[in-house]
Amino acid sequence: MAWLILILAGMFEVIWAYSMKLSEGFTKLVPSIITIIFMILSIILLSISMRSLPLGTAYTVWTGIGAIGSFLLGILFLHEPMGAMRMLAAVLIVSGLVLMKLSAHS
């Protein structure tokens, strides 16, 4: 259950990162409110997952989901570049997440 909560926390991190971009430096009200709500929800779920997952594993997976999810949203919706070096970096992040999951005891 902790892993499902952690994945949801990571997905909420992607939502708040994307809405933060849309808020244009917190100058747009609706994206700013969405950012704050999903930040709070994401951190609450992360803390719940940390009840049974090791700190290093939970935090690394949470930030990794956020990084990869934000990277993909940037490419798909914000037309950010998808160069070879960026793709390699994304593959390395995903590899690290898989290794963290495989090494976890919970």
From TrEMBL:
Localisation: Cell membrane
Membrane topology listed for this record: Multi-pass membrane protein
GO MF terms held by the record: transmembrane transporter activity
Pfam families hit by this protein: Multi_Drug_Res
Segments crossing the lipid bilayer: 27-46, 58-78, 84-104
Main location: membrane
Any GO BP annotation: xenobiotic detoxification by transmembrane export across the plasma membrane
Keywords: Cell membrane, Membrane, Transmembrane, Transmembrane helix, Transport
Matches recorded under PANTHER family: GUANIDINIUM EXPORTER, SMR FAMILY PROTON-DEPENDENT DRUG EFFLUX TRANSPORTER SUGE
Name the record gives this protein: Guanidinium exporter
Organism the protein comes from: Acinetobacter baylyi (strain ATCC 33305 / BD413 / ADP1)
Gene: sugE
